[in-house]
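Thread amino acids onto this structure.
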């Protein structure tokens, strides 16, 4: 028997071909950025304890990884250096060393694979003896003194071959200062991916383990955003856009999909989302316990970013997703 139900949404789900035909969103390897941690030394590929499957690479191993990623179709990597404690100071001076780890990592990527895009994080924390993204004086983060350092850092990275500068510090006015510094140094083609709505989140824990970069004192709440706020994200987006950002980013990802959606609806710029370390660790840990199916939950997570409106996804899952796509 059947009822009179002329409208039946299940008709569009009747089999796999039909479901594929009407599918609204797709995750494409072209849109993924793979974050990579780099360390000093040789022949090191050391797993991050709180991020199984994610490694810290010495430069020789980084080169191998870059070739593998390129063969899988990944066209962009975000680099994060783990700087030796002895090289850290209050001014993050090591960040300007042309032979420093970050600059050498950029060169390694470019020498291995010239078309691989290098997305370079600009913030003081990996280099700061205080473990903060900005310059610290008497327990305060000094905005404008930090800006000059960030501008120099961006130019140092551009000189090493950075394609895109990604300020993750959340100082006021940083995009304008970095744009000006890059232009004055002749790097008018180096882009800026702004960490526009970067929240003061507990989901960054494993990342700080990987780089040993947790703040020595206090927290990041005077510069990173309050997780309770969404209109404030729009204000940051407006400023970064006016200051010359080429792309805007929301971070973390999963708990902030509403912000991704707002940016996608209101901005003309490409919108990126950062699927951060703690989000990666959650899926890994649950899968290790046998509580979740890893591959399905990863694919569903990446799809959620697309559905929310993200154009670009930074994710530690990028490589494995590319591998699955290749085998499929
Ligand atoms: C540094 C920076 C952080 C992340 C990216 N750049 C950590 C922080 O702000 O404390 C986090 C990324 C992640 O958790 O995967 N400014």
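Threaded sequence (328 positions):
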């Amino acid at each position: 028997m059947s009822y009179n139900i002329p409208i039946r949404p299940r008709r569009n789900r009747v089999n796999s071909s039909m479901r594929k035909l009407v599918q609204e969103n797709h995750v494409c390897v072209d849109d993924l950025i793979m974050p990579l941690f780099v360390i000093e030394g040789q022949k090191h590929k050391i797993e991050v304890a709180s991020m199984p499957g994610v490694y810290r690479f010495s430069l020789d191993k980084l080169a191998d990884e870059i070739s593998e990623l390129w063969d899988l179709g990944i066209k962009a990597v975000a680099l994060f250096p783990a700087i030796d404690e002895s090289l850290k100071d209050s001014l993050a001076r090591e960040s300007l060393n042309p032979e420093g780890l970050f600059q050498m990592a950029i060169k390694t990527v470019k020498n291995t694979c010239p078309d691989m895009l290098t997305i370079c994080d600009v913030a003081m924390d990996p280099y700061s003896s205080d473990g903060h993204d900005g310059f610290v004086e008497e327990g305060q983060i000094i905005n404008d003194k930090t800006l000059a350092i960030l501008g120099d850092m961006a130019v140092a990275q551009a000189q090493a071959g950075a394609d895109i500068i990604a300020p993750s510090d959340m100082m006021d006015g940083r995009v304008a200062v970095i744009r000006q510094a890059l232009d004055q140094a002749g790097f008018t083609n180096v882009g800026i991916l702004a960490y526009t709505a970067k929240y003061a989140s507990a989901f960054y824990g494993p990342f700080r383990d990987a780089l040993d970069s947790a703040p020595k004192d206090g927290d990041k709440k005077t510069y990173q955003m309050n997780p309770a706020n969404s209109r404030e994200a729009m204000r940051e987006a407006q400023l970064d856009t006016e200051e010359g950002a080429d792309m805007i980013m929301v971070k973390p990802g999963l708990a902030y999909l509403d912000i991704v959606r707002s940016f996608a609806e209101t901005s003309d710029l490409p919108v990126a989302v950062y699927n951060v370390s703690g989000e990666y660790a959650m899926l890994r840990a649950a899968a290790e316990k046998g509580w979740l199916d890893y591959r399905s939950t990863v694919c569903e997570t990446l799809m959620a970013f697309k559905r929310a409106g993200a154009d670009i996804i930074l994710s530690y899952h990028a490589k494995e997703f590319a591998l699955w796509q290749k085998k499929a």
